[in-house]
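Hi there,

I know you've been waiting on this one. I reran it after we fixed the sequence typo, so this is the corrected version. Both the input and the resulting structure follow.
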Amino acid sequence: MNVSVYSREAIESIIAAGNFPKNTAVISFYDPAIKRIDEEYTHVDYSGVCNTVFYSELDDLDLDVLRRKGYTYDTYFPEAPDIAAFIYRAYDSGMDIICQCEYGQSRSAATAAAILEHFYHSGISIFTNYDYYPNQVVYHKIFDALEKYKRYHNNRYYYAVDADTIKSHIEKL
C-alpha cells in the first residue's frame, strides 16, 4: 500500500488534470475555522474521481491548545476509530491511501505517519521530512486506534456482541 500526503491545492490540481490515481482511498481533513470565516468553504470534492473517501472536519490543534478550545485528549477527534476501520478496509482491498488536508503538512502528515508506522514501522520517514509538521495528537489518536482495531481485525473469532448473546452461545456449546 502506498501512502501519500497532499495539500488541498495539490490534490485539486491533480483532479482538474484528470490524473487522480486509480485504486486509491482518501482521508480528507478540512477546517472548521476556515468555514467560520468563509461560508462557501467546504471539503475537497472527490465525486467522480473517488468513491472511497473519509471526510473529517477537524481543527488542527496541538495538545497544549486542546483545553483552551474546550477539548480534552479523549473528546478531540472522536472519528479516529472510524478512520482506523476505513484504513483497514482500504488495506484489505489492496488500495493506496492519500492523506489530504489544507496545507498537506500537519493532519494529513500525521495520518500518513500513523499508517506507515502501524503497517510498515516506517512512520519516522514522515517525521524526519522537513516538508511536514505532523500533528502529534492526530498521530497518536490514529496510531492507537489502528493498534486497537488490529486486535479485532486479526481475530476471526471475535464478535462484538452483548454479554447475553455470548452466554447463549456458550450454553449451546
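Quick highlight: The chain has one domain: 3-172.

Best,
R. S.
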